């Protein structure tokens, strides 16, 4: 908990349970930072591409132009990993 009484977790301080109701306020600096890191680590290896994609999806939580939830990101990441495990998308 910080000095101002905030616990550092996302969500309001309205007495609601932060584990069941989470809000991510727009944070352009966090979006830029996560995407910059993603661009720096992206290389030719599939692992670096996967991690970069995960960072981009995570940054969407803080992008005012995106509407996503942590659950949607988890589903997307699982899909990315499953496709990689299968050897790619079958067309």
Automatic annotation (TrEMBL):
Instruction: Give the superkingdom in one word.
Output: Archaea
Source organism: Natronorubrum tibetense GA33
Checking Pfam families in the record gives: DUF7976
Indicate what this protein is called per its UniProt record: Uncharacterized protein
Where is region (Disordered) located? 1-29
| Compositionally biased tracts (Acidic residues) | 16-26
Q: Which InterPro entries match?
A: DUF7976
């Amino acid at each position: 908990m910080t000095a101002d009484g905030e616990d550092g977790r996302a969500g309001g301080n309205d007495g609601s349970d932060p584990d069941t109701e989470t809000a991510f306020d727009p944070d352009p600096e966090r979006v830029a930072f996560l995407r910059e890191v993603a661009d720096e680590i992206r290389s030719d290896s599939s692992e670096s591409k996967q991690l970069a994609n995960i960072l981009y999806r995570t940054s969407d939580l803080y992008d005012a132009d995106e509407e996503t939830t942590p659950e949607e990101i988890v589903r997307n990441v699982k899909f990315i990993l499953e496709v990689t495990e299968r050897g790619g998308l079958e067309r």
